[in-house]
Amino acid sequence: MSYTIALAGNPNCGKTTLFNDLTGSRQRVGNWPGVTVDKKEGTYKKDKEINIMDLPGTYSLSPYSAEEIIARDYIVKEKPDAVIDIVDGTSIERNLYLTLQILETGVPTVIALNMMDEVEARGDKIGAEKLSETFGVPVVPVVARNGKGIQELMEEAVKAAKEKKPPKKLPIFDEKLQGAIDEAKKLLEDAGESDSEWKAVKLLENDENVAGQVTEELKKQIDGIVAKAYGPEADLEAVVADQRYQYIAKVVKNAVKKGTTGHVETKSDKLDKILTNRILALPIFAVIMYLLFACTNSENFLFLGINSPGIWLAGIVESIWERLTDLAAGVLGGASPWVYSLVIDGIMEGLGAILGFIPLVLVLYILISFLEDCGYMARIAFVLDRIFRRFGLSGRSFIPLLQGFGCSVPAVMATRTLESEKDRKITTILAGFMPCGAKLPIFALFVSTLFADSNQTLVTYSLYIFSIVVAIIVSLLLNKFVYKDGASNFIMELPQYRIPTLKSILIHGWEKVKGFAVKAGTVIFVSTILIWFLSGFNFGSFNGTNAAENEDGSVMCEMNDSFMASIGNVIAPVFKPLGFGEWRPAVGVVTGWIAKENVVVTFAQLYDEDVTDEYLEEYFAQYSPEELEELGFEGGEYDAEAAGDIYSESVLFEGGDENALPHMKDDIKTKAAAYAYMVFNLLCMPCFAAVGAMKRELKTWKETGKAVAVQMVTAYVVALLVNVAGGLFL
Amino acid sequence: MALAMMEVGETREIRAFHGKEEVKRHLQDLGFVKGEHVQVIGENPSGLILLVKGVRIALNRGLASQIIVA
Question: What DSSP assignment string belongs to A482-524?
């Protein structure tokens, strides 16, 4: 017999920690309300017959936000065999508010009293037995973070699931209200509705979601009951909430012994005095953000003259990949030219470009996870709220936008924690403007080749500023002309500061990067092969013309005659006003939609014909033997066979050489055009994976189309302005 | 008076809320109900940090001015 046990509780009460404990799974846990934005399933590690369902955290079962609806629909409609309601002992009153509503649904329930270590540290005592007696369900004290009490909790939960005994009815409401509930309940029962008690309360509360499930007539009759007992203008919702809290207050008074009376200043309060201070908060935030990016992507880490952890890791990954490529090249030495070309020029080169910056994204996400887990991120959201409000957003939008510096997919997913629909829609669009990890190689290549005589660091940083300024302007415009429903509110629980466990941070960082790595292995893998095919073949490959013309009998063709050239030539004119109306840059834009990593891969492949053996020999002749060795030539001696790989890996992807891809300058002639190209790729539609994520958040293709259209128009207009203005001033 | 006018360290009782129905519902879920005590424990340009039912909650000033306390 298999059972399903659901975990429910307030945001940030330790649900996900408990879920990981129970299932041995590694879901991300954050000290940030709203970490679990969807339900997750796993099996109990000690009994595979038991399914565990982790529901998103909710403050109540009224449908205020998307997560609450997920949690409530699951409990009410899917009816798990039992619910474990996790109650944060440090804020027991607020947490029991949800408990009462779960008990009302009639589902067998076990209460887990979590964070008992912190409760004890405060000197408070919670009488679990008294609570159990009052509520008529088992109450088990646990410490989810170290697994204390979990075994006993599960035993109780399995017992409850087997017995299937609904919790007893509690005397929460006063006579008048209970009378109205009973009347409504009878109407519902007569109409053949299930869960009549729960629905009766919800209908009296004027819950639109439940009202939509019953007939109009029934709803009218129930409104009649309310009007009769409380008058026509009555707001029963407030009455219900009030009586629930009063009941809880009585229960808590009876079962909880506070160690101290009143509020004692905790460590968190002291930290908040500094970190949310009206003067210090923003400077501290700026320093933390500087450190975040310095650790990720700096070749002069904290001015120590060493590489940052991110760059250091990236170097290791790249050198491993280099060896693998050499190995593959050796094995394929005798294979036919097109197989060699597919594996070495297509797959190895394409994937290598992406693997190189996965470490950057990983380091960024590990650090973001640390900020989320320790509780600081909630404060940042609050501190920034005033500034974001001026631009028509809420401070909460900061998290998705920051994540956008790593990868747009988790960034778009994170918009789900925003309460207002307007904020969600706008932030989804803006997240696509952020310079995600995959866009950085584009900047590196362009800045090193086409801005060789400029201040290159400045050019790169200016793009970051550009993305933020454009995001602000677009947000203001969207607020003014599209989403006019006024400012949204900021309501957020500020969790206690906690030192996160190393395990949780690593899991959390990896979870985010996993999606990225999977993307590299699937979408990008397929698209590299596609680009390779389209740029090396044409119709002549299949009717024998190429084989007859080529000396070596190969069916492949010159890049200039390929399918890719034909496609590029069709769309190139669109980009003419932006300064890059040639087929190769146009193809780069298109492959960038499959994945932004592809832009540089495409450039490397499309301008590859420039890189002849003679060119390479001449190119590397400028280096001394020591420099050659540093670049990867064994013994510092020029080696024609290794030259191609070394060229693409250390010259193109790293940036750093103005003479790389000499023919790029024929297509993109001016600095203004080069900057416009970078800006266009920065702002235009993100990769397909991100568009897929946008569709999940925005629900319909129509809304997604609108969002993508905004991104495209923005990119085009801004790139056009850059090219025109640049042409005038430079 | 409005909650937004309270000083840091002050504790008062919630009387009413003048604002949108769905915001009111959310505030109730978080413990902002009539008769509940609320203490201001911090403030900055973004708004106030409040203590309600033992939980720290940050509110923007606009919202805080819709909550009436006595």
Answer: T--S-PPP-EEE-PPP-PPPHHHHHHHHHHHHHHHHHHIIIII
Closest residue on chain B to A279 (Cα): B44
- A-chain CB neighbours of B62 within 8 Å are 487, 489
Using a CB-CB cut-off of 8 Å, the residues of chain B touching A90 are 54
Residues of B in contact with A376 (CB under 8 A): none
Check if A384 contacts B (Cβ < 8 Å).
Answer: yes
Nearest to A241 among B33, B49, B52 (CB): B33
**Tokens 């009878």 appear where?**
A186
What is the least distance, in Å, from the CA of A490 to any CA of chain B?
Answer: 5
Query: What is the fold, at CATH topology level, of the domain defined by A175-257?
Result: Helix Hairpins (1.10.287)
Q: How far apart are CA A326 and CA A344, in angstroms?
A: 9
Sheet holding A109-114, edge to edge: A40-44, A47-54, A3-9, A82-88, A109-114, A139-141
Lowest mean pLDDT: which of A88-92, A144-148, A295-299, A722-726? A295-299
How far is the alpha carbon of A495 from chain B, nearest alpha carbon, in Å?
7
- To the question of domain A3-163 being in CATH 3.30.70.560, the answer is no
Q: What architecture (CATH level 2) is domain B3-69?
A: Roll (2.30)
Q: What is the pLDDT of residue A703?
A: 93
Domain ranges of chain B: 3-69
Contact with chain A for residue B15, Cβ under 8 A:
no
List pLDDT tens digits, range A400-415. 999 888 888 888 888 8
A643 token code pair? 């030259």
The pTM (predicted TM-score) of the whole model is: 0.80
Model ipTM value: 0.95
Where chain B has pLDDT below 50, the residues are none
Tell me whether residues A490 and B34 touch, CB distance under 8 A.
no
Q: What confidence category does residue A608 fall into, taking pLDDT thresholds of 50, 70 and 90? A: low
Domain boundaries, chain A: 3-163, 175-257, 282-288+363-442+454-503
Q: Which residue has the higher pLDDT, A641 or A289?
A: A289
